[in-house]
């Protein structure tokens, strides 16, 4: 079986392309994952094929990345409108990072939305590989009525519902065809000395030799050939499928590529797991592509026995199913297989770095609808994060509530639907509160005496303490300057412990940071003093001193690294400034052509707004990662509102 992925932005007709390709020589067999990855098996040219139709939304980019792990080649569907080329930038990025041979298919050419050369020029801004036209359109006025193949120099006229008709190259297309063909041959000659010599000697190379060179160049992933068509009308589908058949590399090349990337012995690389999902009453289903023989039920794979092997199209299990090298199969009761991963018989190997999904930007607390759901939610989210690497599951600081980081609102909605439909857990979501702190603005001193008589031994401790603001980031410090044994040495650690306890909650209701405490005097009682008494005295004294120290609210500030296509970089200065952030600068992204990495300091309370503004400004393409940088003072009405809201939450709890 040969396998390819069809990927690209939403609304570019990917599913229609797969449907038409699968129906060229018979009826295809289909299955669909809850995550939107469609699998289509069909026959073409007496060979078995599997097409993986990756979901289009940027929030599902991780599933497209993982599909490439199992693909000999891919088809990148793009719009015929030049201004929409940027939407393909994330897909060009992951295709090139993966090293997967790619054919770029400009779909919906029946809709006159711009010149093809402008589309290619716009896309080239995001591709390190040369995008090389293999066909040009034949026009009648504003309509595209056919195409001309630049290698065979044959022209075809589209016919609705029928195979295209062979025609002579129209006179109005002859000059453009000659120009585009010369450009094609010039680029191909960069990878073939024989062709270069033919061109230098001004000899016309035969078509079969050019097809062979083109096939080799694609298999070696040197260029990205560009084909055109309109899948909705079936136009260009046969040519696209023939290009895949003759030019896409065999499964052995994929095995070699993954073995090198994963530092695995090629002969031991048995399979690759690339997708998984949970089904009601069935459990975890894992999709696997075989590289070796003997992968039947009970065989050793990934260090344990392989569970029931299923036909991925109909879900039927059979102990007689023995996938051949290249076949895609499903397996259940194989929970030991992580997804994605490279698999040998005895071990699982982490996938290449390029499969790492974008950092999820949307943070939400999931609130279960019942106590029963609360008990199940944590375990269920852990299961889902195993099958969806775009999802990160954490616990909220302070409350321990389930916090999830999703790729965006669509991803979050799909997660909640899966929890409801598959696991019968109903949840609502809320925005998590930023982690605020407080400190003091001025020093103060306090004299605190703790005295208590309870019938037996009493409690007595007397401390004199000074507190002062520390420099930012220094945290809590403790020192002592007592003399003459007024506070015995063995009680001083208890004084420090009490001061630390007082820092857990300050006058504003938040943890106190960057404060220094000094014990400079005190008294003790030979009988009634104890560690507990001095700890209590210190805690109560520091609390009193904090209330006199002009408490200041501290907000978290995060260093954000924003990844965006370069055309959007100009808009980010205004976005960050509007969120009261600080622009640090930007550089070209050395790993992705046409992308910038923009750095800024952003208040923690504005990160949700940053994610929303970034999605809006970049059509859902941009994303950011964040790391905590420091706390800074927050004053005025904004600070007052945060303190009041926190007090209200305390009453509610």
TrEMBL record:
Task: Using the record's annotation, list all stretches that form the Elongation factor EFG domain.
Answer: 552-642
Question: Which InterPro entries does the UniProt record give?
Answer: EFG_II, EFG_III/V, EFG_IV, EFG_V, EFG_V-like, P-loop_NTPase, Ribosomal_Su5_D2-typ_SF, Ribsml_uS5_D2-typ_fold_subgr
Q: Which UniProt keywords apply?
A: Elongation factor, GTP-binding, Nucleotide-binding, Protein biosynthesis
Where does the Translation elongation factor EFG/EF2 domain lie? 433-550
Please give one Gene Ontology molecular function term for this protein: translation elongation factor activity
Q: Which PANTHER family match?
A: ELONGATION FACTOR G-LIKE PROTEIN, TRANSLATION ELONGATION FACTOR G-RELATED
Q: What does this protein do?
A: Catalyzes the GTP-dependent ribosomal translocation step during translation elongation. During this step, the ribosome changes from the pre-translocational (PRE) to the post-translocational (POST) state as the newly formed A-site-bound peptidyl-tRNA and P-site-bound deacylated tRNA move to the P and E sites, respectively. Catalyzes the coordinated movement of the two tRNA molecules, the mRNA and conformational changes in the ribosome.
Protein name per Swiss-Prot or TrEMBL:
Elongation factor G
**Source organism:** Rhizobium hidalgonense
